[in-house]
Give the backbone structure.
Amino acid sequence: MKNIWLLITVVLILTLPLSGSVQADPGPETGQTEVLSAFVDSWTQSYGQEQVNAEPLPGADLGKRVYLTFDDGPDPRWSPPVLAVLRKYQAHATFFMIGRNASTFPDTVLEIASDGNTLANHSYNHFDLTTLGFQGFSLEVGDTEQSIRNALKDHPELAAQVTKCLRPPYGKSNETVYAYAMTMGYSISMWNLDTRDWAGLAPEAILTNFTDKLQPNRVILFHDGGEDRQNTIESLDLVLHELIMQGYEILPYCTESGQAVIGG
Ligand SMILES: [Zn+2]
């Protein structure tokens, strides 16, 4: 009898928080089966049949680290004020750039890199990469990398900050996208904490949503392009303040050696 209740408890723990956390976060770039499977792996590893504990991700050995990412720039209206907030908190991030924007605004690419941030790939035209064959895919990714490198051509000391990380637009990927990316030497880089800065929320509401979802090893998604980002800039200040008050280390997700390992 005791074993039956133990089994029921374990099943409830494995299923209830999963359905809540995954469905509660439908950003414009969600639909990430890989994030879901990462959660499943994490939960499966964390909760053996013997262990019953409702707290997610126990294990203090994860370290209080989070990884900061920005999508959809560079944009000369929004990237510089984002950089000013990052400088205020001495924080660095990975910027997933749209190649078209990087070609149009090379000075902004240079400004982002000069501040010590890392640069990554978000396709040239912000296309759904699952709809492309390898030729189209390789142009989307290759032209973006070339645009970023062109912007830094007079600054070879910054070249190592251009990473081989690719974030597919809308978070849309499949096995083919993973295979194409691997062929080009790229890693697919998703996120697991959407700030919802795209949803028209007030900065304080973005902070509340963020704080509710915060735990170690989150890859945080913000945007520095695409539309009016005033709420992003104001909420970024609140979020970084909160992270530092809570003792978190704030890091870029991608570096020259690849993307951070965030598994539990
Ligand atoms: Zn995007």
Q: What stands out?
A: The longest strand covers residues 65-71. Residues 29, 71-72, 122, 126, 169 surround zinc ion (CB under 6 Å). The chain has one domain: 65-258. The CA atoms of residues 113 and 158 lie 7 Å apart.
